[in-house]
Amino acid sequence: MTGLRAAAPVKAQRMRSFVVEAAKKSVGNLTKADLEGKRVFVRSDLNVPMDADKNITDDTRIRAAIPTIQYLVDNGAKVLLTSHLGRPKGVTEEFRLTPVVGGLKKYLTCDVNKVDDCIGEDVSKAVDGMANGSVMVLENVRFYGEETANEPDFAKKLAANADIYVNDAFGTAHRAHASTEGVAKVLSTAVAGFCMQKELDYLEGAVLEPKRPFCAIVGGSKVSSKIGVIESLLKKVDILILGGGMIFTFYKAKGMAVGSSLVEDDKIDLAKTLMAQAEEKGVEFLLPTDVVLADKFAADANTKVVSVDDMEDGWMGLDVGPDSLKLFQEKLATCKTVVWNGPMGVFEMDAFAKGTFGVADTLAAMSDAITIIGGGDSVAAVEKAGLADKMSHISTGGGASLELLEGKTLPGVAALNEA
Fold first, then answer.
1. Rounded distance between C-alpha atoms, residue 416 and residue 419, angstroms
2. What number is the average pLDDT over the span 309-326?
């Protein structure tokens, strides 16, 4: 697979062309807003992982937020930046956004300060002292239970110091919270940031106006977590490739033995229905033809590759096999749009990572295709493989990307308006 990585071309021109042509919601246009001297409440997704010493271990989300913040700064706005971090129960020291300030300063060319609250008098005083073209980080909005409850009064308090609302947190756009939906209803101008708009352009473009052939790759451990997206994609794709632990529920639905592999027995009838729908709609429905078996769920397990017709008791499938990967690669080579959500196997263990990384290598080499990584473990795998910059688009929101691919309305998007 290393040759494929080396051959992967830069996709910049193709990406720009796709964004111009992609289907767009009416979510406003940040570039149309009058920003000089305006107080702009920006909801970003700065929920970054940290180690025990509060050092940021992956600043991908911070980097994704920078273009919007820098644009606001360059146009003279006073940026009130907020986010959630973790799942705190009230004010919790370990979930303060203080470490994020240092992460932002690495990329921004302006003053970045912080206030230890997100509402109230201290925030108002801090905002009054802001210069044009500066950033104030507000405290973790989830320190208040009213945030996730989307309390209208709390949303008004968040909006009290702002003139304009910008939602750039795609990863939380599927949640109707005070900072993601409530504030948008309070302020007259509520628009999408650049990160949010890019997500919508790519994901909606893939769903509404895909370049064909259109293939979706869906993996992960359970059918139950991907029912909606599979049902939705069956109405749109030409090819559907399945991988991960969910495949064994489909095999059992076909009357095959699956050994000790993961199976959702209560989803067997659903699996039969999905396969029937694919046949009815003329969708090429691809399951692996061989799998990597293990005698235990562990990195040091004994392994062997077998046909899916030869799975044994006492052995569990933890990755797709080499013949399956070759088949998938041949099919993918014919496609012009590919959406990938969910790994092919337990890629966190080297013995079961070849399927997932093989798919990542293949997508990275597809110079004439739009390749969209739809959040979650797929993103982690692509990042681990060092191939993120070879993909057309890497989604910052697992749950949000799934819901958008399912055709659902995202509350954080629906609340936005034209600038």
1. 9
2. 96
CB 42 within 8 A of CB 80: yes
User: Which SS3 state, helix, strand or coil, does residue 273 take?
Assistant: helix
Has residue 45 got a pLDDT over 50?
A: yes
Q: In this model, does residue 22 exceed pLDDT 90?
A: no
Angstrom distance (rounded) from CA 127 to CA 386: 40
Q: d(Cα 88, Cα 2) in Å, to the nearest integer?
A: 43
Joined tokens for residue 393:
């688009």
Mean pLDDT of the chain: 90
DSSP string, 292-332: EEESSSSTT--EEEEEGGG--TT-EEEEE-HHHHHHHHHHH
- The sheet with strand 134-137 has its strands ordered as 112-114, 134-137, 78-82, 39-43, 164-167, 189-192
**The residue count for the chain:** 419
- Nearest one of 187, 253, 188, 203 to 223, comparing CA atoms: 253
Active-site residue numbers?
61, 222, 376, 399
Write phi, then psi, for 28 (nearest 5 degrees): 85, 170
> Which residues are registered as beta bridge partners of 290?
307
Per-residue pLDDT reduced to its tens digit, 93-119: 999 999 999 999 999 989 999 999 999
Strand order in the sheet with 393-394: 284-286, 239-242, 214-218, 337-341, 370-373, 393-394
Structural domains of the chain sorted by starting position, each given as residue range(s) with its CATH number in brackets: 25-196 (3.40.50.1260), 209-405 (3.40.50.1260)
Q: Alpha-carbon distance 375 to 203, whole Å?
A: 11
Q: Is residue 257 very low, low, confident or very high in pLDDT (cuts 50, 70, 90)?
A: very high
Residue-wise burial string across 116-145, b where 16 or more C-beta atoms lie within 10 A, e elsewhere: bebbeeebeebbeebeebbbbbbbbbbbbe
d(CA 370, CA 390): 11
**Residue 12: pLDDT above 50?**
no
Q: What percent of the chain has pLDDT over 70?
A: 93
Instruction: Report strand pairing: 290-294 vs 316-320.
Output: antiparallel
Q: Could you give phi then psi for residue 362, rounded to 5 degrees? A: -60, -45
Q: Which amino acid is at 44?
A: S
- What pLDDT digit, counting tens, does each position of 167-205 carry? 999 989 999 999 999 999 999 999 999 999 998 888 887
